[in-house]
Amino acid sequence: LLGLCTEFVRADEIAARIRPETALIVIETPANPTLDLVDIRAVVAAAGAVPVLVDSTFATPVLQNPITLGARYVLHSATKFLGGHGDVIAGVVACAEVDAKALRTMRATTGALLHPLAAFLLHRGLPTLALRVERAQSNAVILAARLANHAAVACAHYPGLGNVRNAHLLGSQMRGPGTLISIDLRGGHDAASAVMRAVRLITPAVSLGSVDSLIQHPAGLTHRVVSAENQAACGITPGLLRLSVGIEHVEDLWSDLDQALAAVPVTQLAAAA
C-alpha cells in the first residue's frame, strides 16, 4: 500500500544485511512473547547511519529509555501500560523535535488523530504509570520464581530469572525485569488450553499492561497466522502461555495460577516428562 519493503533478520545479522535503500531498522525489546532482550547499543552501532526504532512497549519508559542508548525513535502501544486500564486504543512515537515535525504532518494528512475521550483516558493513566509498573513487577518477580519450580511448567521465561537471551542487559539497558512472564507447559497445546479454561481471577485476553492480570496463548491467538516453522524458530511452542501480571494481591494471583495449573491432566505431565 505504501510501497515499502520489509525484511526480517536476526539482530546479529543487521550490519551484513543493510543495503543502500535501507531506511529504518525496527526492533522490539523485550521481545513478544519470549521476552528475549535485544542489545539496543549493539543494534545502533551495527546500523551506522540508518535510524533505529525501538518498540519499548513491554519495558515502558519506567524501565527503559532507548533514546539515551542511541535509538532515533521509540514506539509505545499506549493501549498497554501508558493507559493502563484496558480502556483506550492509542499509540506513541517519541523522538527529537526535528523528526516529530514530519510525523505530525503525516498524522494530520492521514487523519490519524487521537479522539478526545481516548486522550483523556490516556492522560488519566499516565500519573500512576510508575506506581503500576513497580507493583506489577514486584508481583511478577514472585510469580516467576514460583512458576519456574512448578511441576506443570517446563520453563518460565523471565528476564529476572536470567534465562532469556541477553539477560545480562538487565541493570544496564533495562532497569528492572518487567511485568510479563511466559511459561512453557509440559503437555503442550492441550495443557495450555486447560490452563486458559481454568483461570478465574486472571482474564484470558491478548492485551497486556493493564491493572488486571491477563493470560494468552500465542500459538493459538496473537501468532496463529505465523507458520509452525516460524513459530518454532521464534521460540513459540504449542504449550507457551504469556502472562501479563497486574496489581492484584500476589497471593490471590498465585492461588489462581496454582489451581489452573492443577487442571493439567496428570497423564499429560507424565507424557511430557
Structure write-up:
This protein is α/β, with parallel strands linked by helices and 273 residues long. The protein has two domains: 11-127, Aspartate Aminotransferase, domain 2, CATH 3.40.640.10; 128-272, Aspartate Aminotransferase, domain 1, CATH 3.90.1150. It has helices spanning 14-17, 40-47, 60-63, 97-110, 116-125, 129-148, 188-198, 228-233, 250-261, 266-272, and strands spanning 25-28, 52-55, 73-77, 91-95, 153-157, 180-185, 203-204, 214-216, 240-244. The strands form two sheets. A five-stranded mixed beta sheet has the order 5-6-9-8-7. Helix 7 crosses helix 9 (250-261). It is globular and about 60 Å long. The termini are far apart. The model has no long low-confidence stretch (mean pLDDT 94).
Shape estimate: globular
One letter per element, helices H and strands E, the order comes to HEHEHEEHHHEEHEEHEHH
Please write the CATH class name of the largest domain.
Alpha Beta
Task: Please bin the fraction of helical residues.
Answer: 25-40%
Main sheet properties = 5 strands, mixed
For this entry, give a set of tags:
273 residues, alpha/beta, Aspartate Aminotransferase, domain 2, Aspartate Aminotransferase, domain 1, 2 domains, five-stranded mixed β-sheet, 14% strand, globular
Quick synopsis:
The protein is built from 10 helices and 9 strands.
Layout of secondary structure:
Elements lengths: L13 H4 L7 E4 L11 H8 L4 E4 L4 H4 L9 E5 L13 E5 L1 H14 L5 H10 L3 H20 L4 E5 L22 E6 L2 H11 L4 E2 L9 E3 L11 H6 L6 E5 L5 H12 L4 H7 L1
Parallel strand pairs: 1-2, 2-3, 7-8
Antiparallel strand pairs: 3-4, 5-6, 6-9, 8-9
Helix pairs in contact: 7-9
